[in-house]
Task: inverse folding
């Protein structure tokens, strides 16, 4: 891909000490927790934002908070950049390393430490996958609410880094609303604890600061999250419309009338076709846009809420309404939705945008998005969390054609600017990473950015934690 | 994702195929979550995505395989859980097949590794040799713990521990088994290589059940190993020879009396035979014939599902159904075995983490015994938690592996079905 997004130039002082750094890390960790052979480093060069790649200097895979602390203490002492990595599923390049960086992977820290039903909490290591928490407590009637589409693979540590969302966050909130405490290793190896099992902690809400800080304030090694009791029942219902505009205005009307279903997901025609081909979920293929609305509660509650939604949808020209008839069908409906990005790989390469807009602007932004991709001669598929306005246009392109790839990136930037200009923001749940970094000035004033960078510097004066991300490279404080 | 191969590299049909597979991958990472080795080791390099990347880097640069790549490819079980998970439809199986052939052609393994692999390839596919080897294994068994302490000899130790304490009696040879009821069809049965030595009762039960149902069952003379064992070692020519040989044997049988199916009772073999069409696609003399054989190949439970077996009264025995990877991921057969067991009156329970491999994986439990042991312990824990009376599965490898980790009786699905539909009670259940 044409590289329009730059990385920080590698620190020569670090590169020239490569051999010594690896030898020192080998003293801190057992052999199977350190990767340093050049060929073995290549698979760590990127994440799910695969267009950008940098082979790191080394990879460490610690098993304990103490090992993480030892690595941080060492890297801090010698000014070696550290890029944290959960499962490497970031769509914004949050886990892409740089040549002078040590990748700190949490994949070996994947134990669930404690489940406390009385306090409705689970305490887990940062490398635990999102879904495995719900799987562990599911039989006892509980679940962990934020459900990124990559929840099968993505880790809680990564979710905290990006303040991840998901389909069911419309009702239950995103990661920050479900996170109660963390154990975190600071840049110099100090271990701190923030929050706990309680809803609020004395003093500053540093937990709120850490959630969404993209690995720049410290390395979270353990997290305490809120568990929620499963509803009596849940039912996804498919609403088919002729046009995206109708579906979009329906969403705004539903939410505006005070109804909060668990999820309202949107798919346009290209996305429906992609997902149906993969999941065979029975999505209607004769509609222009589809909403998956999930209601939950008792049968009576679900019926009542559905009745209201059907009525509103009727005013927006809904063409088909179909309730899932079985648990298996419901599972397929969600499987198709949650696999949408990967399934897109069957027809093309893609980059996925993450802009969020006010609901009243959904239809407008959808229309403009198509105009933008049309103007670049590219195809787009839209599949996203409509209930909270979190859009995910998937721009389709051919990664083996540099010109096509450059066009996709340019179109993406225009779409994100469109979202900001419509009163929204650059990212709803994927994080800034490197992907949206250079657009941050479109969102924030210099004063806004300076304050954020001041906070960052208070935790990491030397800018060694995930340094190429979040803040535009120009205009940073010199270190 | 992006690939960079030269036009010249793409002239090689194997490289061209791998390039197509790689282009499908979007590097989303979903596959890591269901990969048994990633879940066990927690290293991207031991995940499907990591291996795909290692293979991509090796092939794009036209490099011979090196010790690092070999380590991580060798750790792959070929369980194909990743292909079940992958939303993009990445054909990991054929990519890793290609990588294994590339390794075999370009990498010289350490002496001990070469010897053990040669030994396995020379013994396991040949029933007479395997039976003799099991006799020797009985003598060697006391030395297993000692051998396992020497890294280079660890596979030998693992092999001795897996060998059954007593070799089964020889199974019946080639024969035609006439239907015992009104004739409904004619099938060939894959006699197999290791299975009839380890447990001849599986095919005996199959033949009894099918003939009672009115099916003529032919065990053709000349059938050999399906080739899976050497195929997974990257020994392509040897694997293709096995495949061609069996294609000839079965097509002769088709000409002789027609065949509705080639029945396979070991799902590991089924995955490979169903792939004959692909394996021999570049051989003009065999491509078409092999494709025909692949369409005829059916797991016994697939075939039984077409015969409308009567529904029986529940009889109180609960079965933990362990789906072999080659069954659920390799052949995508998930519901039929369970539906057959339920219809036959058994209570069926699904162990947790059913998608994870038991660690058997062909010769994996010999060549990678440490990871295999961890997976076995995890599998047995999940199976025992079902508190079922008996374990049913469709692959001899899993039966051997799991039986060394639990006291629960473990049977092939068809042995339970044969019993339920009028056959003798399986010996392993005699005291129940």
Result:
């Amino acid at each position: 891909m044409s590289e329009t997004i730059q990385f920080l130039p590698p620190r020569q002082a670090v590169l020239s000490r490569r051999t010594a750094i690896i030898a020192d890390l080998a003293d801190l960790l057992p052999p199977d927790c350190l990767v340093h052979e050049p060929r073995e480093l290549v698979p760590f060069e990127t994440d799910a934002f695969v267009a950008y790649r940098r082979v790191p200097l080394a990879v460490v895979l610690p098993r304990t908070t103490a090992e993480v602390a030892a690595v941080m203490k060492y890297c801090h002492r010698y000014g070696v950049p550290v890029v944290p990595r959960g499962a490497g599923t970031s769509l914004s390049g949050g886990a892409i390393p740089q040549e002078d960086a040590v990748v700190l992977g949490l994949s070996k820290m994947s134990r669930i430490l404690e489940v406390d039903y009385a306090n409705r909490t689970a305490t887990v290591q940062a490398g635990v996958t999102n879904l495995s928490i719900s799987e562990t407590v599911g039989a006892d009637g509980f679940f962990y609410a934020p459900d990124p589409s990559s929840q099968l693979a993505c880790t809680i540590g990564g979710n905290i880094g990006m303040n991840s969302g998901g389909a069911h966050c419309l009702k239950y909130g995103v990661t920050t609303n479900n996170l109660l405490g963390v154990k975190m290793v600071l840049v110099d190896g100090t271990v701190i604890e923030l929050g706990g099992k309680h809803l609020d902690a004395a003093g500053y809400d540093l937990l709120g600061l850490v959630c969404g800080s993209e690995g720049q304030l410290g390395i979270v090694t353990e997290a305490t999250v809120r568990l929620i009791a499963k509803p009596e029942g849940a039912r996804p219902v498919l609403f088919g419309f002729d046009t995206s505009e109708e579906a979009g205005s329906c969403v705004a009307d539903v939410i505006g009338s005070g109804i909060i279903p668990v999820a309202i997901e949107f798919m346009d025609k290209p996305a429906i076709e992609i997902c149906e081909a993969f999941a065979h979920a029975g999505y209607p293929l004769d509609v222009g846009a589809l909403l998956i609305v999930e209601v939950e509660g008792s049968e009576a509650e679900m019926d009542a809420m559905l009745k209201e939604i059907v009525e509103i949808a009727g005013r927006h020209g809904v063409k088909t309404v179909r309730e899932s008839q079985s648990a298996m069908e419901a599972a397929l409906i969600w499987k198709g939705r949650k696999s949408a990005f990967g399934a897109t790989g069957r027809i093309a390469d893609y980059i996925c945008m993450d802009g969020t807009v006010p609901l009243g602007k959904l239809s407008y932004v959808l229309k403009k998005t198509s105009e933008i991709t049309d103007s670049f001669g590219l195809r787009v598929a839209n599949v996203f969390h409509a209930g909270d306005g979190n859009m995910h246009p998937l721009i389709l392109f051919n990664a083996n054609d540099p010109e096509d790839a450059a066009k996709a990136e340019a179109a993406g930037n225009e779409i994100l600017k469109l979202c900001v200009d419509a009163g929204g923001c650059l990212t709803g749940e994927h994080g800034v990473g490197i992907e949206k970094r250079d657009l941050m000035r479109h969102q924030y004033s210099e004063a806004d950015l300076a304050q954020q960078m001041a906070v960052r510097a208070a935790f990491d004066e030397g800018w060694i934690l995930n340094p190429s991300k979040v803040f535009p490279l120009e205009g940073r404080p010199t270190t | 994702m992006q690939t960079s191969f030269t036009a010249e590299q793409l002239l090689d049909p194997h490289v061209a195929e791998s390039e197509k597979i790689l282009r499908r991958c979007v590097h989303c990472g979903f596959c890591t979550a269901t990969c048994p080795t990633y879940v066990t080791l927690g290293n991207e390099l031991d995940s499907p995505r990591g291996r795909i990347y290692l293979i991509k880097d090796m092939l794009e640069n036209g490099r011979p395989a090196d010790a690092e790549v070999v380590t991580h490819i060798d750790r792959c079980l070929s369980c194909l859980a990743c292909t079940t998970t992958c939303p993009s439809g990445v054909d990991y199986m054929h990519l890793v097949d290609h990588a294994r052939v590339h390794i075999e052609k370009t990498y010289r393994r350490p002496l001990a590794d070469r010897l053990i692999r040669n030994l396995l390839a020379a013994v396991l596919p040949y029933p007479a040799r395997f039976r003799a080897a099991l006799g020797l294994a009985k003598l060697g068994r006391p030395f297993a713990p000692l051998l396992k302490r020497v890294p280079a000899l660890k596979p030998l130790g693992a092999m001795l521990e897996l060998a059954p304490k007593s070799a089964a009696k020889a199974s019946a040879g080639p024969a035609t088994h006439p239907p015992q009821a009104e004739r409904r069809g004619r099938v060939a049965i894959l006699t197999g290589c290791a299975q009839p030595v380890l447990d001849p009762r599986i095919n005996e039960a199959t033949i009894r059940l099918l003939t009672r149902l009115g099916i003529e069952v032919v065990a053709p003379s000349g059938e050999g190993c399906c080739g899976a064992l050497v195929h997974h070692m990257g020994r392509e020519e040897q694997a293709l020879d096995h495949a061609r040989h069996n294609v000839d044997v079965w097509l002769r049988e088709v000409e002789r009396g027609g065949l509705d199916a080639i029945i396979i009772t070991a799902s590991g073999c089924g995955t490979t035979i169903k792939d004959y069409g692909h394996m021999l696609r570049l051989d003009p003399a065999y491509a078409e014939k092999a494709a025909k054989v692949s369409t005829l190949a059916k797991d016994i439970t697939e075939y039984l599902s077409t015969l409308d077996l009567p529904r029986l009264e529940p009889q109180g025995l609960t079965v933990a159904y362990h789906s072999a990877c080659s069954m659920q991921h390799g052949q995508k057969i998930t519901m039929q075995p369970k539906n057959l067991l339920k219809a036959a009156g058994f209570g069926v329970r699904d162990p947790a983490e059913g998608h994870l491999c038991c660690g058997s994986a062909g010769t994996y439990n010999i060549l990678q015994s440490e990871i295999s042991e961890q997976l076995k312990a995890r599998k047995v824990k999940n199976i025992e938690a079902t508190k079922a009376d008996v374990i049913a599965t469709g692959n001899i490898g899993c039966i051997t592996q799991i039986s060394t980790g639990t006291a629960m009786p473990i049977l092939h699905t068809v042995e339970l079905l044969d019993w339920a539909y009028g056959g003798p009670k399986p010996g392993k259940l005699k005291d129940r």
Summary: Chain A is about 35% helix and 20% strand.
